[in-house]
Amino acid sequence: MVVLPVVVPDAFISMYLPAIYAGLIVGFIATMAIAMKREEIHILILTDLVGLAMIFVVSAVGTDLAEALILPGLVVELAETLAISEILITREMRIIEQNPRRNLPKSSSLFPQPFALNMEILNTAPNFIALLLIGYGIFLTGFTGGAVAGGGIVLYALSKKARGLPVLMLDGIAGISGISWCLWILGFLLFFVAPQYWLLSLFIAACGLLLKVASKVGLIGLLMREDIDRE
Amino acid sequence: MISVPLFFYFGIFLAIVGSIATAWGPGVNDPVVRTFNTEVASIGVCLVLLCYNHVLALLTLLATTVVISLILFRAIIRLEEMGADV
């Protein structure tokens, strides 16, 4: 017997079982493939599929609760993929350092050569689009706004770096992250201590979340900088 | 008229076919091909989220899929240029 809240529409109830079974099938396929593979990078890619199966099962709930659970799930999956890929690269570097015969010449990576094009639009357009994205993200606030503003930061860093130009320093991101946590907790506390200021506390929490997510996405730009920096 | 069950079942179909293609599809010993096949499954999940009216989850899934594929490509390229067996 399944207990159904009254807020779930009938159409979502009829979609519940197919979504659950689809999630189970996708998860089964992904875990079987993980069990059969040996190389770590393949396992990392297949872990992405297990995350998709998780989204299926959670989204079958069909209410706002599902949405609230999918967002942190996706972000945690993103951070996990980032961390594991760094660990893989570091481990592979150590193996190669211990075995000098396998030393290979270091070449460039993701964006191999800087563009030599000298067009004005390549200078001005990325600045404008990044500014537009960051402004729109600040206007949106909250989770989505953080993602949009972070996308603007990454676009700025990548477009500058792809042309071999110096880019703004993104150090001190940990400090911004700490301040945003403080804002978030402050907003949460104010929500309980003084409920009549709910709009203020909502905006404090939303701005904290904006800073947090934007700095997280900007961190990817920081990682890219190390790669692309060597000419 | 837009038929929601059609989108829903097509999304499920895409997700299952995409995951089979990621697991045992042709040419998946190349990690780049495997990463691209993951996108098919993620489009299926996008359709399912669209049927459930989960707008924020859909937008976040799109954003994280792009960023995860960037991270994976970076890892693949770094590992390949270091000469690791991928």
Mind explaining what this structure looks like?
The complex is a heterodimer of chains A (231) and B (86). Chain A has eight helices and no strands. Chain A starts with 9 loop residues before the first helix and ends with a helix. About 3% of the residues of chain A have low confidence. Chain A is mostly helical. Chain B is mostly helical. Chain B contains three helices and no strands. At the A-B interface, helix 2, helix 3, helix 4, helix 6 and helix 8 of A face helix 1, helix 2 and helix 3 of B.
The pair of chains with the biggest contact is: A-B, 58 and 49 residues
Structural class of chain B: mainly alpha
Radius of gyration from the alpha-carbon trace of chain B, in angstroms: 15 Å
How is the quaternary structure best described? Answer: heterodimer
Comma- or semicolon-separated keywords:
heterodimer; A: mainly alpha; 8 helices; globular; B: 86 residues; mainly alpha; 3 helices
Task: Give a short overview.
The termini of chain A are far apart. Chain A has helices at 10-14, 16-36, 40-59, 64-98, 120-140, 142-162, 173-193, 198-229. Chain A has eight helices and no strands.
Helix/strand layout:
The complex is a heterodimer of chains A (231) and B (86).
Chain A: H1 10-14, H2 16-36, H3 40-59, H4 64-98, H5 120-140, H6 142-162, H7 173-193, H8 198-229
Helix pairs in contact in A: 2-3, 3-4, 5-6, 6-8, 7-8
Chain B: H1 4-24, H2 31-51, H3 55-81
Helix pairs in contact in B: 1-2, 2-3
